[in-house]
Amino acid sequence: MFAVAVIPSAILFLGMFITPESPAWLASHGRWDAARHALQRLGRKPVEIEQELNSIRRAGELKEKRAWRELLRPGLRLALVVAVGLAFFQQFIGINAVIYYAPIIFQNAGVSSANTAILATSLVGVVNVIFTVVASLIVDKFGRRPLLLWGAAVMTISLVALGTIFAIGPNKAGYFILLVLSLYIAAFALSFGPLFGLMSAEIFPTRVRAIGSSIATFANWVANLLVSITFLSLVNALGQSGAFWLYATMGVLAFVFCQRLVPETKGKSLEEIEHYWEEQEQRVPTPTSGSKS
Question: Which residues have CB under 8 Å from 172's CB, separation 6+?
């Protein structure tokens, strides 16, 4: 099992030889022509390249120690809330509880053989890979926000169905659970799976992108840890049906969160996204904004 992991590791190692350096890193070392070439390799249009380079220039004018404070100023703190919120909901909707403990779930559903349960888990993993590829092909056509909303809705429905199956009695329901789990995984792979990483970079201006994305990634792994170490305790306390219904509740909250706060970033420049955050902050009423004159 551990030896098999060498294969993707080797592919990643070889791929790094043809991966361009970050344009921001190249520009920070004065290699502006190389930064422009890297953006061209990434498929940017000429106008987008100049916008990105201008943003990098402005970012370089700010001292690094200001970046933390920048995230807390009006216009960017809401972006941080959205990034961290997506990080938490990606995990709290139960994805890694399902993936880590899928063999146990299948065995509790009446799959008597451990090998069969592991095979069913592998099929779920294949679904994850396939639909992640599909997501990369359609995300710029359908947009980020619609995929997040549809993904949250389908995942919630799938979790409710799983909870209902275990409440009624999962014996000999292995194939049906495989179908429902595959639907759940497909919805995740089309939405929260790849889009958290994508949007945690897109919603931040260049000058604070590294720090903002780092905070969101840290929050994501903290949430992953919490879900992983609490799943079996939740099952013992609430039963498997109750655990899945709890994750379904998180799915409803994730849907509301995306509907209320997450913007559409498809086709938007960094300047347009930053201007959007500033407008949203201005719409939030202050403690004195509601007072009568």
Answer: 110
What number of other Cβ atoms are within 10 A of residue 265's Cβ? Answer: 20
CA distance 212 to 83: 8
Cα–Cα distance, 123 to 35 (Å, whole number): 41
Per-domain residue ranges of the chain:
20-56, 73-265
Higher-pLDDT residue of 65, 263: 263
Sign of the four-CA dihedral 192, 194, 200, 202? negative
- Report how far apart, in Å, the C-alpha atoms of 220 and of each of 11, 71, 77, 253, 291 are: 25, 18, 18, 17, 39
Q: Cα(first)–Cα(last) distance of the chain, in Å? A: 70
Q: Tokens 């939405």 sit at which residue? A: 191
Which residue type does 289 have?
A: S
List pLDDT tens digits, range 154-205: 999 999 998 888 888 766 666 777 888 889 999 999 999 999 988 888 888 7
For the stretch 113-143, pLDDT in tens is 667 777 777 788 888 899 999 998 998 888 8
What is the three-class DSSP state of 21? coil
State pTM to two decimals: 0.77
CATH architecture of 73-265: Up-down Bundle (1.20)
- Give residue-wise pLDDT tens across range 6-50: 999 999 999 998 887 888 788 877 888 888 888 888 777 887 787
Angle at 211 between CA 205 and CA 214, to 5 degrees: 120
CB atoms within 10 A of CB 201: 15
